[in-house]
Each structure stands twice: as structure tokens, then as C-alpha cells.
Amino acid sequence: MTDARQFLGIEPLADDRHWRLEVVPELTTPGRFLFGGCGLAAALVALEAASGRPTVWSTAQYLSYAPTGATLDLTVTLAAEGRRVTQGRVVGYVDGAEILTVNAAVGSAAPLEVGGVWIAPPDVPPPDECPPRRPLNVGSPSIFDRIDVRLARGRTFEELRSGDAIPGSADSALWAHVPGHLEPSAATLAILGDYVSGGVSQPIGRQVMSRSLDNTLRMVQVEPTEWVLCDIRVQALVGGYAHGIASLWSERGTLLATASQSMSVRLWDLP
């Protein structure tokens, strides 16, 4: 089974506080720059290795682009190391310019007599009964060629591009997995959580381009699952900025994590 480190191709340099990621086409958007979820995932691989603890919470702020062919250098700082929780920071650079900053808390689980999950997964068909959600034909390889996505609820790209779509529900859902069964982890869920940005088209009935300003992941628990259900809810689009959340579920209906984003949005009127 492939893990996130292998999937991304990230490697440590002289020590576990310094890492390097080559921005190959298979980690990029169709716009030929690093997919935001892959940037956060790379930072979490580095931070978890440096701290020896799993992710509890993380947020990435995207400051600029890492284009295809660039080298992303990541520096880990463990700012506060407590008995249970370590607060850390990872900064990514391209040619000395800061591209993204990730702040996170990592920590080990502790036994507690009380607890629960108070939301439920949406009622959608299983992955093998859902149609493929095919990426737009933009002619260049991207991260979307490596992830198998099935549309569980919502409208297809073709419907949104037809000109006939009308404003609809702000809720949509996708099943996603990586052929070869990418091992579930905070890093892999960070990649899948970045699908929040794709949900903005659903409530307005128009194809849009969404640039993620941040990507926040809150871990709940991890269990083996071939497919992850991304239950996406767009909360608002005002003044060209959108905000949305996703609940990430296993095939058994276990809540794995929640993801949220704010995005800069513009209409994408393709021929």
C-alpha cells in the first residue's frame, strides 16, 4: 500500500527538519502549479516525521504559486513541545520566496470515558453506483489524473458547462480514492479535503475557478478505507470570496476529518 510520502515523492535533506518536494505535473492543478492539498500534505508528512506525533489540526495559508518544475523546500519548526501536544510550523519556499505557511498541532490520543460523533454521513449511493467525475479536458497532466473520483451528489462538469444549469443546492458529495489504495492519513485527507473548492459551482450553476486562500484540516480518527466520501457544503459566495466545509467519511460511515477553505472565485467561461 502506498503512503503519502511515496505518493508525493517528498524526501528529507540533512535532517527531519528540512524536506524537499519536486513539483511534478502529477501533483499540480490543470493551471500547472502545485495543488494546494498536496502542499499541505507535504507539510504534514514533514511535521509528523519531525515530531513523531500524528496531526490533530492544521491550516495552510497559500501565499503564492509553486509552478510545475519548481522545487519546494520545507522547513519545520517545533515551536512548543508539550506532554501530549506539539505546536509546530512548516514554511515552504521556492527559490527563497515563501509560498505557503502551515501551522499545526500534533499530539497523541488519550483515553477518555466520554465522547461521540454528532453528525451523520449523507445518504448517497456507494462508489460503484456513482458516475465518474471526469476532469475538464485541459490537455496537461495533473493531480486529477491520479485520483479516481465518483460523483455521489451534485451536477457534472458537463451539466455546469452546458449553459442550462440553474442555481441549485450548495451541498454536493464525491467519493474519492487513489488507485493502489493510498494509505489513509492526515496527509492523504488533506489532499482530498481540497475538493471543497470544486463545490462552489454547484449552488450558482456556473463553472468557476476557485483559488484556495487556506486549507484547514481537523482530524477525528483514521481507519482503513479504500474510498473517502467528501460531503461538501458551500456556505457563502459574496464579493468574489467563497467559504465552504467538507466532512470526510470512510466507507463504513466513520468520520475521519473535517476540512474547510476560503477561496477567491471568478467565473470560468470555457468554450
Summarize the structure in words.
The protein has 271 residues and is mainly beta. The chain has a single domain (4-108, 125-267), classed as Porin (Beta Barrel), CATH 2.40.160. The chain is built from 5 helices and 13 strands. Strands 1, 2, 3, 4, 5, 6, 7, 8, 9, 10, 11, 12 and 13 form a 13-stranded antiparallel beta sheet that branches. The protein starts with a helix and ends with a strand.
List keywords for this structure.
Porin, 271 residues, 13-stranded antiparallel β-sheet, mainly beta, 14% helix, 5 helices
Topology:
Elements: H1 4-8, E1 11-12, E2 18-22, H2 36-51, E3 55-62, E4 71-81, E5 85-94, E6 97-107, E7 148-153, H3 157-161, E8 171-177, H4 186-193, H5 201-204, E9 208-212, E10 214-219, E11 228-238, E12 241-249, E13 255-267
Antiparallel strand pairs: 1-2, 2-4, 3-6, 3-10, 4-5, 5-6, 7-8, 8-11, 9-13, 10-13, 11-12, 12-13
Helix pairs in contact: 2-4
What's the CATH superfamily, by name? Acyl-CoA thioesterase, double hotdog domain
CATH topology: Porin
Major sheet details: 13 strands, antiparallel
Strand content: 35-45%
Mean pLDDT: 93
Kindly provide the radius of gyration, computed on alpha-carbon positions and rounded to a whole number of angstroms: 18 Å
- Helicity level: 10-25%
Overall spatial form: globular
* Stretches with pLDDT under 50, minimum 5 residues: none
In the CATH hierarchy, what is the class? Mainly Beta
Structural class computed from helices and strand pairing: mainly beta
Through-space gap between termini: 40 Å
CATH architecture: Beta Barrel
**Total separate domains:** 1
The number of helices is 5
- Give helix and strand order, one letter per element, not per position: HEEHEEEEEHEHHEEEEE
Count of β-strands: 13
